[in-house]
Amino acid sequence: MNPEYFTIWNYRRLLLRSFFENTSSSTPGVEADSNKYDIIQRYITEDLGFLLPLLRKFPKCYWIWNYRLWLLAEATRLLPSSIVYQLWQKELSLVGKMLTLDSRNFHGWGYRRQVVSALEELAIAMGSMSTSMTEDEFAYTTKMIESNLSNFSAWHRRSKLIPTLLNERNASHAKRREFLDNELELIQRALWADPDSKDQSLWFYHQYLISNFRLGSAHDQSLMIDLSNEDKLVYLKTQVEDLLEMLQGAETSKWIYQRLIELSIMSKSLDGRWPVKVSDLETWISKLLELDPLRKGRWQDLRKQMFP
Questions:
Q1: Whether 164 contacts 134, CB under 8 Å
Q2: Res. 222: pLDDT tops 90
């Protein structure tokens, strides 16, 4: 009737925890242990099944997702790894179906991250030769992005996977640079699909990629290693040129003006010179004041910082 009534979920936890403890304290022995595991698994499986129609009806209810995670945590605590691994694998399949229905459900994406983490930990505990799911998850983000370019959660997940992905591949500097070029090409194609869009997800991922060109960018958070200032300037110049071309016909996109200014500031921090005419920078700030009046103070402060 009301899945937001969190007290009921906590009371349900107490009831099941008491039942599990009573079951675990039964007479020891191989046959008794097997029977105990069967009973606990049955109750957990039935409760997981009970949650399914609720998830379909209330896919963004925190308490349902949290309670589901609690059930699986109890399974991990009480059952053999082989049984638990199968339960978590079913969850991965379930959350995949949930995200097919609503690809931008951030609850589902957060849940998927926890499921993947649990599967990786279980694989290590079971002595599996292959424990990392980073490659599979990166491919999954590609699939979800291709089906919906505005999937903020997929872009965000992708950005969090990239450092681990490159480290696991033992990627050389050349491979990292190639990877960055491919990602820049991907986001450029996505931006060109609708440059006047108010969708922020594409611009946030673009910002993540260009953060590699900042002066003194942290290596552990970036794609690159030992990228010289000269190389960064070449990348920044290319990005500015692409955005200027994109601006033709999309003069009402505040994101293009904002990104052009950001790129120009980054470029100036590297060699002390503006990459474009000062009059162009003034024009872009004026356009931001016109298109984004709610942040008028921000753009005015930016103008003062750029031209003290």
A1: yes
A2: no
